[in-house]
Structures are given as structure tokens and as C-alpha cells.
Amino acid sequence: MISMRPERMIKLAVKNLGQYKLRAGLTMLGIIFGVCSVVAMLSVGEGANQEIQDKIQKMGSRNILIKSVKVPNEENNSGGQRTMIASYGLTYDDAADLARFVPNLEASIPIKRLRYDVQFKARRLQTDVVATVPAFIRVQNYRMVRGRFLTSADEQFGAPVCVIGTRLARMLFAGFDPLGQTLTIDRDAYTVVGIVGDIAQTELTPQNELWLEGENQSVYVPLRTYLQKRGDLFAQLAEGGSTFEKIELYELILSINTQDNVVRAVDAVRRVLKKNHRKEDYSIVVPLELIRQARETRKLFNIVLGSIAAISLIVGGIGIMNIMLATVSERTREIGIRRALGATRTDIVLQFLMETLILSISGGVIGLVFGALIPLMITAATDVKTVLTFPAFAVAFSVSVTVSVVFGIYPARRAARMDPIEALRHE
Length: 427
What we know:
six-stranded mixed barrel
């Protein structure tokens, strides 16, 4: 007997499965749920990972962030004085030494960041005031929405100008055009010359009127202007008296020319700061290292999620094996007739494997469809970011087919090893 052509084998497999529609459908459910869970879980994991990496990336992969940290019991008070001055953190000398000794340094951005009451007419709110230099916007990858950012002339002459974030513009200047208006920062007047938005969050209409939740709410002023008006002392009210903090620089951002030179630059930063400070009243954050750690964590996270979801596929494969074993028992006489007519053992194995493949491929395709829909529904219902990726679809589908074939081999081989004579006698 000549072996059947593939198309004939497929038609026969579909016909045989069609005789047991309910059984075939229930068998496919295991594969459907398995594939669906793999795709959905990997999509949720990838979405969470990308959110983390986006936030880290916004800090600048070529940047080194140094912040002043208040060491416990740092207050320099004597006896029962009611007024205390705590002096700690980064200094202007640190900035000068780092600019001199850190290799491949492209820019050094000094920052003072404090919270003040900001007022326009009768509206008042508390927000971050960032005193910095013009290069800040380039290093932080922010973009201008309207107007301009701080300029070297503003910094040189101590101009009383400011740039505000898009969210602050919407909340404080509702009904007014912010540009050219004067706002008050704790009794100091500043003229608004620009509106800045975070590059990863701002979207614009042609009229620049779309301002999203979670946008920039800070005020940016020239560092020299702030020092002329406020200096380095910051007063805080406390029980029993006032507390003054003297912090020259709250933050310092170092931009390195290439990512390859960041690690070397970090070593130089640590050496300089360790030499200049008796106590470790500073912290160093390297976004590039955080990005690499996030990528390693993602790999482990995806392996764990994929392994958990793969259990469903194994359960589905076991279901296919059980159904095919039952099918072999029910079709013993059919197998005997085919063997008597000249079908080889290979023909019998291929016939049952074809039925297994049809079940697994059909269940896999349906599972992929639901696996794509579930993350979309999660995003729509909860605002949790999910990301559908081709590897998730490929892995889920290929594993489902592989598992099904592996679990289908034993029933197929059992059918092929039947003695034709004994099979024909079977009732």
C-alpha cells in the first residue's frame, strides 16, 4: 500500500476529530489556557520592565547623579541653643574638583532643589524650585513646549526669570497665558519666560494646549539669581526654635561623553568625594548601572513567569495524551483494518501525530488570540502598561506544539505496535 499523501492525511485527521467534537474541544482548552497565560504573563512582565527602564533612561544613561545626604546627628549645635545650623552635602569645591579630575566629562550641572510656595494672583501652591544652569535642559533631555529655557545671559547677570513645568502652568495659570506673567516664589518675583515638559510625558496639539497628568510641576530659575536672593542658608521651623541648613549644592549631575567611559568616571568621582568629605554625606546614582540591573532582573522575571505559565502547557499536553490513548483503544479495529490493507507502522504513527498536531495548532492559535486580548483589556481597565512582543508569541506557540507532539508520541507508537490480527478481533 502506498503511503497517504499529507493532504489526505490531514483530511482524515480532521474527519476523525470531528466525530468527537466535545472531546476535542475540551482537550484543546488545556493548550488554549496554557498559551494564553504564557503570552499574557510575559506581556505584563515586559510592560513593567519597560516602565522601570523608561524612568531610569530619563535620568540619562551617560549621567552620574550625586546628591547631598543629611547624616544623622549632623546638626552643629552647642549646648541648649535654640538656633542650629546643619552644614553638610556637596560644595562648590566638590564641583570644581570633579570638573578637574573626572575624565571625559562633557558637562557639570550644579543644582539647588527646594520646596517653596509659588503664587500667581490669588492662586498659591507648594512645589519644587530648581536653581540650575542653562545646560540642565540638554543633560536632562527635557524639551521646551513654549518660550525658552534659561540662558547664559540670565545666569551671568542674575536675571529674575523662571521656566515652569507644563503641569504647573495648567494649575497656576488657568485662563492666562503664562509667558510674560510674574509669579512670586516666597516673596521673590520672577518673570515666566518658558514652559518646559518632560520629553517622555509631554504631548502637544498644534496649539500647544494638551497638558497631561504627571507632567513637570517644577520651577527653574538661574542658580546665580537664587544665590543673590537667598544664599546657601535654608531656614526651617522646628519645635523650640528655628533650624538652618547650609547646603551649597543639593545635587550635581555629571554628563560623560560616552557610555563606555561612565564606569571609569564613577571611580574618579568616588575618589574625589572620599578625599573631600570626612563623612559620607552624599549619594551616587549611576543610571547606566540601574539599566543593566533592570535588564538582568527582567530576564530572571521572564524566566519565572514563563516557567509558571508553562505548567499549564504541560497539563494540556497530558490531557492530549490521555485523550489519544482513549482514542487508540476505541479505534483498535480501525487500526487492524488499516494494517491488514498494507499500512505501515510509520503510517499509523503519522496519522495519530497529525491529529495531535491539529489539536495543538488549533488550540495554540486560539490561545494566541486570547493572549493578545487579555493584556489589552488589563491596560484599558487598570492603566497598567503591557507590551506584546513577538518572542512571547513565538515561545508560547512553539512550546505548545512541542509539548503536544511529545505527549502524543506514546499513544501513536502504542497504536502502531498493535498486532493486526489481535486488532481485527477486537470488538
